[in-house]
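This section describes the prediction task in plain terms. A model, or a person checking by hand, is given the sequence of a single protein chain and must write out its three-dimensional structure as a string of tokens. No templates, partner chains or ligands are provided. The sample shown here is typical of the held-out split.
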Amino acid sequence: MLRSTRQSARNAGSQFGPAPLRRPGAVGLPDGGAVRGGGSGHPLGRIAENEKLHTYERNVKEAFDSIVPTLKQISAVQHEKDFEHQAQRIARDALGFELPDDILQDAWVEQLDMRRLFAWCVFSTYKRFCDDYYLNNPLASHDAAGFDEFLQACGFHTLDISPCADGRLAHVVRYVLRLPQESVRRKSYAGALFDIEDSIQKWIKVELGRYREGQPNTADEPTRYLKAVIYHYSSVDPEHQGCAAHGSDTAVAARAGLEKLNAFREAIENSFCCGASIDLLLIGLDTDTDAIRVHVPDGQGNIDLDVAVDALSLFDATARVGASEATGAISSAVREASPEVTPGMAQLIERLIENNFSQIAYVRNHHGSHYADIGHAERFIGAGVGFEEIQLRNLMYFAYLDTVEEATADLDVGIKIFTGLNVSHSLPVPVIVRFDHHGHVPGSRERAETHCARVAEALTSRYADLAGRGLLHVLQVTRDVDASDSIEILACSVNAQARAGAH
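The expected answer:
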């Protein structure tokens, strides 16, 4: 019989065309992306879904990773007579868009401003990526409606997830847990240390919706709000590639996540009457293999850090059995970990582990025993509120913020990361400042625009040295969350008179 792990967390051990892989962490294998071993690697693995998700990830990341080699090609012809024509042709063919005319026209005076061009290309690629996401819904889940019903059948009307803001966890909803992104609230924070006040406001909004509108279900239904924290660790280099916010100490990261969860539950219970409460779930993620470790609550909803179900161990133990036997092993492991776990919570955890099996197979088939980029390899920094389209690993470093002052630590970490990734190679740090708005609310868009401008100004002031040397560029965007449209470009530091992506 398979047993759950009982150990300290400390001991855890489209539309984008192909392009060469140049950036550390780029998607693909040396052989061009062939599947290692073939198949799913497990009877519960979803082969077709894995290939669909891999194609999307590869195409998006290759679009970003083609920028540098394309600009190198353009740089090589900057002194030729028909340079501007050649440059635009190269950009169109390789990147799918043209470059700002003014930058190309000024190249004869001194040298081609490659830093501005690089930032422009990153921002334009992001715009194309967003357009594809909101127009074509490439990550659509076949069971979005079914999951909502399943969640309520488990006894929960809302699943609110707070992962660490580390770019290696950005894909946790759609890839790692294989959940429909539209059915899950995700808000990332450094170290997964979510804002309790913000979470209380979200809880109030959800409960008010149940009373006033019957959404997602009516208030008389015996379901609860489920808050989950996802901390992370590294099995390949645990002392250096774990969560930076917790000194790469897995035990500290897990404990801090649990403390936040308990504090949130206590805040709800102490602030509201009539037995108001929530359920809690703590999950660890190995960012090298994408395997999860689930801390199963007991019958009273309490979580023991020393008791967990390790998905990777279960995956390997059930790789050569039938599908029904594998699902049975998952169920047994969950109940062995916590014999008094409520049936609904057990059912949800079993679903998450089974879903994660497909992601473990995904990593093994396309990347080997673990990702090559076990550290940071993000392409840009996202700051503000929004970015729900970011469901890919190591694409964006995210700093959730309302003001620069309240998020200085997160921003400083991001700048430090990109000092190594970009500035050390004389490339600028691309920052996308985003505040979404509600189109049906009077003045909402105007407030979002003002907010973007204020944060962008604060960023260039805080990192004035980088900005002054052309090593920091900022794109300001917003989106009407009440519409199905893509993002709207508000301003861009690359060219104040032009809009990145407006082709």
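For orientation: The first helix runs from residue 47 to 65.
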